[in-house]
Amino acid sequence: MESKTAIVLGAGGFIGSHLVKKLKEEGFWVRGVDLKYPEYWNSYADDFIIGDLRNKEIVEKVLNKRFDEVYQLAADMGGAGYINSGDNDAEVMGNSILINVNVLKRAEQVGIRSVFFSSTACVYPEYNQMDPGSINTREDTVYPAAPDTEYGWEKLFSERLYLAYNRNYGMKNKIARYHNVYGPYGTWDGGKEKAPAAICRKVAKATDEIEIWGNGEQHRSFLYIDEAVKATIDFYREENYFEPINIGSERNVSINELVDIVCSIANKKLNKKYVAGPLGVHARTSHNDLITKVLGYRPSEDLEYGISETYKWISSQINNVK
After folding, report:
1. pLDDT of the chain, 322 residues: tens digit per residue
2. Domain that includes residue 126, residue range
3. In this structure, what CATH number is given to the domain that contains residue 217?
4. Domain shared by 38 and 107, yes or no
5. Side-chain-side CA neighbours of residue 114 (13 Å)
6. Bridge partners, 212 (sequence order)
7. Would you please indicate which residues are annotated as catalytic (active-site) residues?
8. What DSSP string describes 202-215?
């Protein structure tokens, strides 16, 4: 029997590379597309095309037929140091909008009925994320819109674009809002890394103190990559729900608490040194009532396990660089 086919756009990235691996384990023939290969491991894709999805000719080349499953994770993005600085807004917005316009136009042309779009928790209004005790990221609270970054505004616009294709062209696109996905084989240095990777790196290199942006009381939830990939695939294949949905954890910790968890795993006692830096909203966590209703989904919330796996991998990377 012929294998089912999937294409992962953004397959050189963190979530995309893990998604390719999982689809291969399920027996799919997989094409990966990105500007680069995965940085820290070999891609599991059967066919990997290096290409710029801002270029419509490239999109026409890679989306040259109907695929059984299409995952669109390609975007210009990074951690708080990249997204919240304000220095990269024009590139972040322009690049990602071009990609999504090209992908949707081509998908509709070749008869692809459904594209999975990776959105973000950054679409939620800043005014609902000021107090750790009263965070509100229920999916229907995204309006009146007030994201705290242009990255969030771009993702919110792109969500509307995917939904417009559903209405106007009868597509069945799926939209997931990721909340701080982390794990091994992701960016851990250079300015685009997310908080768990940055803290693991800092702790692994530290001997007596660790620098923390702000006062360390910013609150976030973090979802391990394996759980994020499973929820992504399960939601894409769900046949009845076509509005945006959260994929994240409801376990909320402060950055100070996250540092303590990493220090415990590393068996280190470090002094916290608070410094100025981009912070983002004060408090964000996932709200999972909807995804639990639609998929019966509940993540394990085992942050210690996920951080342990991530710390071990980043430590090995640091040791290999020496």
Report:
1. 678 999 999 999 999 999 999 999 999 999 999 999 999 999 999 999 999 999 999 999 999 999 999 999 999 865 556 666 677 789 889 999 999 999 999 999 999 999 999 999 999 998 988 877 788 999 999 999 999 889 999 999 999 999 999 999 999 999 999 999 999 999 998 877 888 999 999 999 998 999 998 899 888 999 999 999 999 999 999 999 999 999 999 999 999 999 999 999 999 999 999 988 776 677 889 999 999 999 998 888 699 999 999 999 999 999 876 5
2. 5-181+225-247
3. 3.90.25.10
4. yes
5. 17
6. 274
7. 151
8. HHHH-SSEEEEETT
